[in-house]
Each structure stands twice: as structure tokens, then as C-alpha cells.
Amino acid sequence: MPESVAIPHTSSSGGDSEGKSKSADKSSRTRRLKHDVIEAVNELIQDINTCHEQIAEQAVEHIHQNEVILTLGGSKTVLEFLYAAKEKKRSFRVFVAEGAPRYQGHLLAKELVTRGLHTTLITDSAVFAIISRVNMVIVGAHAVMANGGVIVPVGLNMVALAAQKHAVPFVVLAGSHKLCPLYPHNPEVLLNELRSPSELLDFGEFSDCLDFGSGIGSPLLHVVNPAFDYVPPKLVSLFITDTGGHNPSYMYRLIADYYSADDLVVRRRVALGN
Amino acid sequence: MPPQRKGAAARVSEDTEDLTRHPLQAILLADSFATKFRPITLERPKVLLPLVNVPMIDYTLAWLESAGVEEVFVFCCAHSKQVIEYLEKSEWFSQPNFSVVTIESHNSVSAGDALRLIYERNVINGDFVLISGDTVSNMSLTQVIQEHKERRKKDSNAVMTMVIKQSKPSPITHQSRLGTDELFLAIDPQTKQLLFYEEKTDSYRGIIPLDNALLGDNPSICLHNDKQDCYIDICSQEVLSLFTDNFDYQHLRRHFVKGLLVDDIMGYKIFTHEIHSSYAARIDNYRSYDTISKDIIQRWTYPFVPDVMFSGNSATHLEREGMYRASEIEQSRSAHIGPFTVIGKGTKIGNNSNISNSVIGKGCSIGSNVSITGSYIWDSVTIEDGCDIRHAIICDGVVIKSGAALEPGVVLSFKVVIGQQCIVPSYSKVSLYQQPTVEDSDEELEYADNSSGTVDSSITCTVDTLNREMMSETPASQLGPGGVGHVWSICEGAHEEEWRHSVAPIPADKLAEAIQSLEDDLELLNLDGNALSVSGELKSGCNGTDSEDDDVEDSRDDSIIYEKEVEATFLRAVNENIKVPDVILEMNSLRLSYNMTSADCAGAIFYAMMKQALEIPHATAGELRKSAASIIDAWNKLLKFYSKEIDDQIEVIMKFEEMCLESVKEFSPHFSQILHLLYDKDILEEDAILRWADEKKDAEESDKVFVKQSEKLIQWLREASEEED
């Protein structure tokens, strides 16, 4: 389950303008404010819970008979999407790239098999070799940026480039709650999260490379574990959201539905705790 | 009355199936009961020292909170007011579902005392986590606690589970990457029970003595030397009562764990739990400080990293190549900030400065053309233009004037001022406070000498008077013009510790030495191996080497302690004008109690005398010689008493040589004159000198330096002895 995006959502609570008014008559207004905020948050929760179904309903239009689908890592949205297509009696095969270093692809493959789909599991490095046999790439997103670019789990930029080379459509499934009004200026660094390198390497085995007592005292081995990739909008063919399918260049319009004009310029503030 | 503040309410028991459900508790020892971080810990408690700009205790508390601990008892002893104030100011007392209670004590001297006090308070009910306030970890405690509880259900003698982690020690220097000695553990691979635990081993011999019973009782044992003790223990309530019953248990590992392992009667067991993908480490000395800081910068401790706000630290932003930058930094365009550096809030960096692999705190001001490598600079430090800082720790408020250079391994304590163009020698520790005279060298206690050590009082006037007492006139020559602070000297036996436990990487020549001795040892071992024959003789051979092994190990420690004692006694004799026969009595008793030969005694006394001569302020080398001469004059009876045999005298000469090479280099030009003086005073006989010269004939050039210097004297002596014949 992709984590919810913390930073872009700090300033907006559903975008309703009612939630912003403050006036002199405090107690009844604050009670109403509280009520409104709770309602808006509940709506948001509802949206998040139902987005899978709404996206999955559109599966039949996109997946046709005897197709080969490629995905990377594990995304619940993708799982539901593929299952919905199978329910409608489409027969297709799925290639799942494992998604190192967290190997969520393994879990997805297992799920798909329990639901009766033909699945082939490959490593991330084999994607370019396989892509010529694939009809469509379907992936989930972590966040959708204002320009139509996507923040996706690491490795998907490589898949997108491979897909572009072989003219394979790259389809991104994203619930509308993943929209973000930020424009990515320096996405590899600004919006990425470098996690612990222990997901890559066993600390104990490599502890002698990490001995700073000898030599010049600075580490010769640096292990980087970025969690996300940025895919620019020109590599994405189609966005499927709960409101339907859209072009990447259209996504900015949807932001207006969910964010008020005040939110569009989001200043990067200090995150307010967890 | 010790202040106790309860945060959120404790849980009420709900389960009817299990016993009443207790909140998970932890005991955090906010006092390490050691003096490794002096002189910094004279003014601030170790747990409040910043590690990558966040106080150490924050890492521990944040980890405990994320691991699901609900009640923490923070035990404070040294500088307890500062710890409590800090906990109040930060928001640790007001976290929901996480109550922090402080327990204060003023006369505990070890972890054992702390646990006994907590047992008396009777606040622990059930299993608890025992850690010290300088632990950094991101492990999840659920699995360990689960295992521990299950084991206890089956076997009520399983009192403790120790967390260990794989970390290979360096084969050359025989120390772990955290600067602690190589640890030898014997673990039963099926049950994970700990069977043997040894820290200080004599790596020169390469032999560990194991009890036969160990092999007899257990079907399989795994011997490890690549594990690191994380000092995170899941203990049952019995542990507290065990400490109370055995009131001489002081240290957690040296006494408690070893005591339990050796004790057959009660049959208590300790188990281990190995963590693989999580990180846990404790900051033990300066080298651990350096290593763990670098691990944090490399994000092994995620999510407790500088750019994630886990406890009220200021927002830091991660950029390329592991560079962390906080807000409001003023950096000149020509300054070059290298990889793996952390820059704190509000710091200013001037033109053409070069900073790499370092941590810089808040509000620092760094001038132009400054070069900083591998250093840890805390808050509000001013570094003026043209300085060169390598592998140093610089505490709050220090001012380094222009052109100064710090050699690797320097520690500058709070508010020290380094004068212009001053070069601070490597491994020096500079503080505003004078070095407390070390009389008691049994245990390393942070405040055994309470009067001279700590500055822990909330009343400012006491602090001032203490300041005035401690800060006497600074010898201006030591720290450059305008320098303020005292350079602490290194005691004789602690030279090795300096470079092992320092922030600076081990210098190449020491590494080469170590490699050389390693190869020599291997040759020796091979020879030994050939000498030992088949099993029949092996046993007695082993036993022999084992006991010798112990002796060598013990005697090395003992001789260092002995030398310190002799020095202290001699100083006292000088200060209090004790008569020579009385001093001889005292020296004799020391010698007997430490089982040293009179040669050792003579050597130690001579060293003490020379050091005393050095202490007398001298302007020129001639004056130094005169003061050395006068001291030898005054105490020659004492020295003579112990150097009656030729061997003793040769020992004195060799000790002098060693001194001139290593510690008291000022004496080296005067070697031959002092030798002559000793001869004149009949302390050394000519035979001794001649035999010493002869022995050195086959030695290497570097050893013969002093022989060469004393050529003339030896020549004259030979002629004199020939004349007599």
C-alpha cells in the first residue's frame, strides 16, 4: 500500500472554503467548523476507499483479449484493476517485475495467482528484454504532480523509458486523492525519500567496509536507497483516475476540483510532526 | 526529594486470560558511569552531547517511543539537573502514551547502584528494557520481547535477553569499528543461550581460555568474534533482585553477565537475539562517536536521520551526495561543502572554505579559507580565517583565532579559545578546567573525585567559585597568543588508548606497526605449533600457556596501574616533604601489593622523578637539566635503594630511553649528561652502562640513538675500567 503523501497535503483539507472562515462568535462557529472538517475528512476517507472500485470499473475498456500486461512492484489498485478485467472474462497474461529492494512484486504475483491469472515474475533488470513482447504497461502511482508527471516506486522510470522505446502504452492508475499541486523542479532530489541502506545490504557482512578507523576516515562505500522515481509527463500515455481516463496534460485541471486557488502556491513548510 | 513527574496515566489491567497487562517499561540509564568523554563531561552530561546536532538522549527516547515502550524511567546521576531541565524543555514529558519519569540519585557510582535504587522504588512490574541514554537504534522490539516472554514461560531461569549484531572487528588492530575491544561470545546455536562472554582478551597470544564444563554441558557451541554487543537488554524482574542480592555487582557486563555465566548453583541463563537489518549501537568512546555519526549521516538509522523530524530537531534538508543543510545558512559562493556534511541552522560560511565529512552545529561562524575535514563542530563556534581543522571535536562556544591548526584527534571543550597561529598537537584535550589529579585508578568513575570533577550545581555562585578555583593562569605558550584553556596531559599507560579511541582515523604508522606485529605473531605461533606434540602433552601445554596468558594479560594492566600509583606516591612525597625512609616503606608496600620486581619499582620511580623535573617551569634546556639534577640529588637515596642490582640499573636506563622516545621527548638531548650524573651519584654502576651499551649493539638504528649520544661517556668508562684492570 503506497504511503499517503504527507507534504503536499498539509495545507488543504478537502479544499472546501467553509473550513476556512473564522469569526467573532467562537463557540458555535468552532463547533460548526469542527463538524465541517470532520465531514470533509470522512469524505476523503470514503474517496480513498472507493477509488479502487471506480478505477477497476474502467478495466474492461482498456484490457482486451489475449493481451500481455507488464507491471512493477505491488499496487493494490493495479491488482483490483487486473482482477476486474479477469472477472469480465478477458484472458490475458501478466508480467510482474519484482521491484527491488522491497520485492513487493513477489506479493503481487502471489495474489494474482490466487485469483487465477497467468503470471510471470521477472527481475527489474529483465524489463528491457521483455518489453517488446508486452502490449501495455500498467502501474500505480504514489503521487501525481501538477504537470502530469508522477512519483512512482523506484525502477519505474526505467520501465517508462523502455516502453517509450518500444512504443508500448504506459498507463498510470491513480486515485484522485493522489493529486498534488506541486510542480516538480528538481524531482530526483526534492521529492525523493532515501531510506535505510539495510534494505540493500546486510550491515554485518559489510561492516569491514564501513570501518572508519583506518584510511582517511571517510566512507569509501556509500549505499543509497531511494524509494521513489520521477516519471516525466511525456512518458505517460494515459492516466486512469476514478473520474475516467485523462491525458497527462489535462491533470492540472483536476487539481482545481480538489484544491482551492490559495493552495496552488504551496510553500514548502516544516512538516508538522508525524 | 527527587522530583518525579508522571506524564500520561498508566494503563489499567484489562485482560482476564493473561496476568494483568502491564505497559512495557524501560529503564534508561542517563549516566554512563565512565570518564571516556572527559573533559567534555565535566560540564555537560554525556547523554546531552549532540550527535549530528541532536542530543543523544533524543535518539534513545524517540526509538523507545516508536518501538512501543510506554513508560520510561530515566535514571540521572551526574549533572542530573541538566538532564531534567532538558527533558522539561523538550516535550518528552508531555507525549501521549509515553510517560517519562526521572529518578534522581546523587551517590550512585555504577549501573549496579542505579538498578538497586530502582528496585527499592518498586516501580518495575514485569519485563523491562534496559538501555543507556547513549544508544542509537531503529530496531523493532516486538520480536525480541515475544521471544523473551515465551522463553520465560517455559523456563523461569531465563532472566535476560541480550541484543547482538554482526560487526566484524578489524583483524589488524583487534578492535571493533566502534573502538571497543574484540568481543568473544560463545552461543548455543539452537537455544541462543549465551555461554561465554569475554571482552578484554590478550590478542597477542591469540588464545582464549574456555572452561571444560562448557563443552561438556552443551551439545553444540558457536564461538563468535564478529558480534557486537548493542547493550540493549530485555530483562525480567529477577535481574533487579539479583543486583540487590549481590551488592558488589557494579558493571553490567563485567560483573553481572560474567557472574551469572559462572554461577552454577542458581542456574540463571542469559540468551541472545541477533538483529540483521536493524541498527543498534552505543556510543562508548570518541571513536564510536565518530563511527555512529557517520552511520547516521549514511542513513543506516533511518528513520532517525537528520532530515526527518523525530523529536523537535530543526528541519534539515537532504541534498545530493549526502549533504544535509538546515535553514538560514549563509554560504559564500566560493565555499565548497563536500559530501556527507551536515550544516546546522544559521551558520555562516566564508569564502573559499572547504568543508567535508563534518557536522557543523547551529549558529556557527566560519571564516574564509578554512579547511574542515572529518570534524564535529557543535553550536555557536567561531572559526576565523585560515584555520585548518582535521578530525577534531569542538564544543559549544569555542573561538579559534585565525591561522590556527588542529591536528587529528583534538578535543576542545566548551568555551576554549585557541590563539592565533597556534598548532594544537594531535590527540590533545583542551578544557577550561584543569585536569583532576587521578589518585583512584581502580574503576573509571565519572565523579569519584567529586570535589575536583564535576560542575553540577544549580546555584550560579558556587559555579563561579569553582571556576575561579579551577581556572588558574593559562600558560600562554601552550595555546597561542590569546588562547584560554588547559591542555590535559596523557598519563603514561594511556597512549595506546588515545589513538584507538580517538575521532581521528588510526594513523598509517600505527597500522603498519600492528600489521608487522601481526606477522611476527603468526611466525611465533607457527613455531609454537611445531613444538607442541600430540594430544597427551597438549593438555598440560595448554594449561601452562593459559595461566601464563592470564598473567601476561593481568600484568600489563597491573603495571600501568602500578606506575600510576608510584607516580602519585612520589608526588605526595615531594609535596608533603616526607623523609626518604618513610617513602621507601611506602614504595615497598606498593611493590609487594602489586607483585612487581624491584627493577619495575626503580623504573617507575625514575619516571616519576623525571616527570617532576619536567613540571618545574624551565625556560631553557640548561635549566631543565639543572632541575633534573636537583631532583636526582634530593632523591638519590630512594633511587639507590631500588637499584642495587645491575639488572635493576639496566632497567632504569632502558626506562629512561623509553621515556625519551615516547613521552618526555624534552629529555632526549640530555640523555648522556643525565646518565653521567646518575653515574656520579653512584646510582648506576659502570658495569650496568657498559652492559646496556653491549646489548644494544645488535639493535636497530632507531634503538641505538641514545647509545650513540652517550658514546663519549661509554668510551671514557671503558678506558676507566681498563685502567683499573
TrEMBL record, chain A:
Composition bias type Basic and acidic residues, residue spans: 17-28
Subcellular location: Cytoplasm, Cytosol
Region (Disordered) location: 1-32
Keyword field contains Cytoplasm: yes
Main location group: cytoplasm
Keyword Nuclease: no
GO molecular function: guanyl-nucleotide exchange factor activity; translation initiation factor activity
Sorted UniProt keywords: Cytoplasm, Initiation factor, Protein biosynthesis
Database matches in InterPro entries: eIF2B_beta_subunit (IPR051855), IF-2B-related (IPR000649), IF_2B-like_C (IPR042529), NagB/RpiA_transferase-like (IPR037171)
Gene3D superfamilies with a match to the protein in the record: Translation initiation factor eif-2b, domain 2
Cellular compartments per GO CC: cytosol; eukaryotic translation initiation factor 2B complex
Family to which the UniProt record says this protein belongs: Belongs to the eIF-2B alpha/beta/delta subunits family.
Quaternary structure, from the entry: Component of the translation initiation factor 2B (eIF2B) complex which is a heterodecamer of two sets of five different subunits: alpha, beta, gamma, delta and epsilon. Subunits alpha, beta and delta comprise a regulatory subcomplex and subunits epsilon and gamma comprise a catalytic subcomplex. Within the complex, the hexameric regulatory complex resides at the center, with the two heterodimeric catalytic subcomplexes bound on opposite sides.
Protein known as: Translation initiation factor eIF2B subunit beta
UniProtKB/TrEMBL annotation, chain B:
Assigned GO CC terms: cytosol; eukaryotic translation initiation factor 2B complex
GO molecular function annotation: guanyl-nucleotide exchange factor activity; translation initiation factor activity; translation initiation factor binding
W2 domain mapped to chain residues: 556-725
Keyword Protein biosynthesis: yes
InterPro entries per UniProt: ARM-type_fold (IPR016024), eIF-2B_epsilon_N (IPR035543), eIF2B_epsilon (IPR051956), LbH_EIF2B3/5 (IPR056764), NTP_transferase_dom (IPR005835), Nucleotide-diphossugar_trans (IPR029044), Trimer_LpxA-like_sf (IPR011004), W2_domain (IPR003307)
Keyword tags: Cytoplasm, Initiation factor, Protein biosynthesis
CDD domains per record: eIF-2B_epsilon_N, LbH_eIF2B_epsilon, W2_eIF2B_epsilon
Localization per Swiss-Prot or TrEMBL: Cytoplasm, Cytosol
Coiled-coil boundaries: none
Pfam families hit by this protein: LbH_EIF2B, NTP_transferase, W2
Taxonomy, superkingdom: Eukaryota
PANTHER family: TRANSLATION INITIATION FACTOR EIF-2B SUBUNIT EPSILON (PTHR45887:SF1)
The family this protein is said to belong to: Belongs to the eIF-2B gamma/epsilon subunits family.
Subunit comment: Component of the translation initiation factor 2B (eIF2B) complex which is a heterodecamer of two sets of five different subunits: alpha, beta, gamma, delta and epsilon. Subunits alpha, beta and delta comprise a regulatory subcomplex and subunits epsilon and gamma comprise a catalytic subcomplex. Within the complex, the hexameric regulatory complex resides at the center, with the two heterodimeric catalytic subcomplexes bound on opposite sides.
Stated name of the protein: Translation initiation factor eIF2B subunit epsilon
Species assigned in the record: Salix udensis
